[in-house]
Amino acid sequence: MPFRRYADFTGRARRREFWSFMLLILVPAASLVVAALLSGSDAVWLAFTSYLLVTFLPALAASVRRLHDAGRSGWWWLLVAFVPFGGIAVLVFLLLDSEARDNDHGPRPKPVPVPAHPASPPPA
C-alpha cells in the first residue's frame, strides 16, 4: 500500500500497515549493509545508498500518515531532525494505537469491532 501512495502525505495509516512496510524496507537495507561490510565493495555501498534514496520518500509519507492516525500532525517528524532524542518521542507516537474516532486527517482506517453474537431478540 505505501508504494501505491508513494508521496501521499494525507490520510491515515494503521499500525499494521506502517510496521509491515517498515519491515519490508528495512530487511533489504540490513541485508545490503551486511553484504557491504562483508565484501567491502563500493558497489554494494552504492546500491545501499540508492536503495535508501528510493525508499526515503515512501517511508516518510507512511510515517506521516501513521502520525495522523495517532492524532498528531506530520510536522512532529521535525523532532527527529532538530531535537536531541526527539526520535524517541516520534517512535512512541508511531507505536500508539489509532484514534478511536474520525479525526482531522480522515476516517478511522481500523474497522470497528462487531460483536460475535448479536443480541438476542426480546421475549414475546
Could you characterize what this model shows?
- It contains four helices and no strands.
- The chain has 124 residues and is mainly alpha-helical.
- Helix 1 (15-39) runs antiparallel to helix 2.
- The model has no long low-confidence stretch (mean pLDDT 84).
Radius of gyration using CA atoms only: 19 Å
Number of helices: 4
**Helicity, in percent?**
40-55%
**Helix-and-strand structural type:** mainly alpha
What shape does the CA trace take? elongated
Termini separation (Å)?
Answer: 50 Å
Low-confidence stretches: none
Proportion of residues in extended strands: under 5%
Secondary-structure blueprint:
Elements: H1 15-39, H2 42-69, H3 78-82, H4 86-95
Helix pairs in contact: 1-2
Supply the key terms.
124 residues; mainly alpha; 55% helix; elongated
Short description:
Helices cover 55% and strands 0% of the residues. The chain has helices spanning 15-39, 42-69, 78-82, 86-95.
